UniProtKB/TrEMBL annotation:
<feature type="transmembrane region" description="Helical">
    <location>
        <begin position="12"/>
        <end position="33"/>
    </location>
</feature>
<feature type="transmembrane region" description="Helical">
    <location>
        <begin position="79"/>
        <end position="99"/>
    </location>
</feature>
<dbReference type="InterPro" id="IPR050171">
    <property type="entry name" value="MFS_Transporters"/>
</dbReference>
<feature type="transmembrane region" description="Helical">
    <location>
        <begin position="178"/>
        <end position="198"/>
    </location>
</feature>
<dbReference type="GO" id="GO:0022857">
    <property type="term" value="F:transmembrane transporter activity"/>
</dbReference>
<feature type="transmembrane region" description="Helical">
    <location>
        <begin position="146"/>
        <end position="166"/>
    </location>
</feature>
<dbReference type="Pfam" id="PF07690">
    <property type="entry name" value="MFS_1"/>
</dbReference>
<feature type="transmembrane region" description="Helical">
    <location>
        <begin position="323"/>
        <end position="356"/>
    </location>
</feature>
<feature type="transmembrane region" description="Helical">
    <location>
        <begin position="246"/>
        <end position="278"/>
    </location>
</feature>
<keyword id="KW-0812">Transmembrane</keyword>
<dbReference type="InterPro" id="IPR020846">
    <property type="entry name" value="MFS_dom"/>
</dbReference>
<feature type="transmembrane region" description="Helical">
    <location>
        <begin position="204"/>
        <end position="225"/>
    </location>
</feature>
<feature type="domain" description="Major facilitator superfamily (MFS) profile">
    <location>
        <begin position="12"/>
        <end position="435"/>
    </location>
</feature>
<feature type="transmembrane region" description="Helical">
    <location>
        <begin position="412"/>
        <end position="431"/>
    </location>
</feature>
<keyword id="KW-0813">Transport</keyword>
<keyword id="KW-1133">Transmembrane helix</keyword>
<keyword id="KW-0472">Membrane</keyword>
Length: 458
């Protein structure tokens, strides 16, 4: 059934979208709670930052192995297990809050025997230290985020691969955009869930609700998502867990993703609250933290909408390259507007353009990767793309925040405007090298191929 030009996705893909959306609650719920909770629990600001970023750095290591395992063993088991791990990780937030204070375990340490090993005396204080670490909230929060990183690596690699497996050249962009939208929208929904439920019923209740949704996601996937990728025994194939796809399509799309995530996460999300404070911009008389949340939500909504639009348009054109270049230019314009923003209206317009540019490239970009990648390598190709995107998202804040302190917001935002244009150049060069043309056609039979002869020039 078609509505507004969009075909209803296959039931399996709807289950994937629902699963990734629900599990995303656990990723977002911690952000509005932990920074304030850290002060109450005695967790340093540095440690809070480590906890919040731990999943991304773990995923950086786990993305490539996850993609390789998908290509060898299939999508169903890694997808279900990844969702379950993320659900268990969300429960880790609850454990962090219900652990007893370390001081209550001092009698336990005192009851343990005193040992002498050469010059070393193992007494009450020595026993107490590991016990205190074991019940420290930061230990459980960090462990939860590490587990979340491993789970999300498996989910990301499988979700895109399932979408590629279930798509052909006529709906691949749309389906990739929809899956990306499900992944993207779960996070801000978690932000809202964390803020509202914690305010009404407390932090433990917010984490329990998020964990319930995350575990429900694994049940939905187990019930409704079949194997889509591996239909024959590949156990004898030499697919190594650490194998990274370095083919031109994977690296090209990954580098485009790197540039977009560097600017999107590093220049916008990481600095927006500082920009609002420095320019005295506020919505509804909210503090910079609250105002930044609203602008970020608007950016994400714009991205989600244009993920569908960009993917759908790319499915109706002979080549996906023009629509990708169009949205990269939209992103460029957005950052130029951001560099000149000085009011609520101008900043809101910049956020809409940046979100549109980010979202509009997502579906067509993953569809292009699937067009040019053999089916049996799609898991590893997705892993390469995710690795480079996470590198960009991780390096962005590390580079932009110190530079903004040194030279101010406008030069950095203007410099970030150049990144989408550079990404466009990389895209054209990579596509040309792989296919022999700047405007490769969509693969007619729906199966990916890295053979340039199978890509029709428009």
């Amino acid at each position: 059934m078609s509505r507004l030009g969009f075909e209803r996705p296959p039931p399996v893909l709807l289950a994937v979208i629902a699963s990734t959306f629900f599990v995303g609650f656990g990723g977002g719920v911690v952000f509005p709670i932990l920074p304030n909770l850290g002060a109450v629990l005695g967790i340093s600001a540095f440690m809070v930052g480590v906890i919040l970023s731990a999943n991304r750095w773990v995923r950086l290591v786990a993305n490539a192995p996850a993609g390789a395992l998908v290509d060898r063993y299939g999508t169903r088991t890694p997808f279900v297990v990844g969702l379950f791990v993320e659900g268990v990780a969300t429960l880790g937030y609850v454990v962090a809050l219900v652990m007893p204070p370390a001081e209550t375990l001092r009698p336990v340490a005192a009851a343990l025997p005193t040992l002498t090993v050469g010059p070393v005396v193992v007494g009450t204080e020595t026993w107490f230290t590991p016990l205190a670490v074991a019940v420290a909230p930061e230990t459980w929060f960090l462990l939860a985020r590490v587990l979340w990183g491993f789970g999300s690596a498996a989910v990301f690699a499988t979700a895109y691969t399932i979408a590629a497996d279930l798509s052909d050249s006529g709906d691949r962009g749309t389906n990739m955009g929809i899956v990306r939208g499900g992944i993207t929208m779960g996070f801000p929904a978690g932000l809202v869930l964390g803020g509202v439920v914690s305010a009404v019923a407390g932090n433990v209740a917010a984490f329990v609700v998020a964990a319930a949704f995350a575990l429900t996601a694994s049940v939905v996937a187990y019930r409704f998502v079949p194997e889509t990728h591996v239909t024959t025994d590949r156990s004898g194939e030499s697919i190594k867990p650490w194998e990274i796809d370095t083919a031109v399509p994977a690296v090209t799309v990954g580098l485009v993703n790197f540039g977009l995530m560097f600017a999107y996460i590093g220049a916008l999300f990481s600095t927006l609250v500082l920009f609002l404070g420095a320019n005295d911009i506020s919505l509804f008389d909210l503090a910079p933290q609250g105002t930044s949340g609203l602008f970020m939500a608007g950016t994400v909504l714009s991205a989600a909408f244009f993920m569908l639009v960009g993917g759908r348009i790319s499915d109706t054109r002979n080549s996906r390259t023009p629509i990708l270049l169009t949205f990269l230019v939209v992103s460029f314009v957005g950052f130029l507007l951001l560099a000149r923003a000085g009011s609520v209206v101008s900043l809101g317009l910049a956020c809409v353009f940046i979100g549109a540019g980010q979202g509009g490239t997502s579906g067509p970009m993953m569809a292009l990767l699937a067009d040019l990648t053999p089916d049996e390598r799609m898991g590893r190709a997705s892993g390469t793309n995710n690795v480079l995107g996470d590198v960009g998202g991780g390096l962005g804040p590390m580079v932009s925040l110190p530079l903004i302190e040194a030279v101010g917001f406008t030069p950095i935002y203007a410099a970030c405007a150049a990144l989408p244009l550079l990404a466009g150049c990389v895209l054209l060069l990579g596509v040309r090298r792989e296919t022999g043309t700047f405007l490769p056609g969509r693969v007619a039979d729906g199966a990916g191929s890295s053979d340039p002869s199978s890509v029709v020039d428009s």
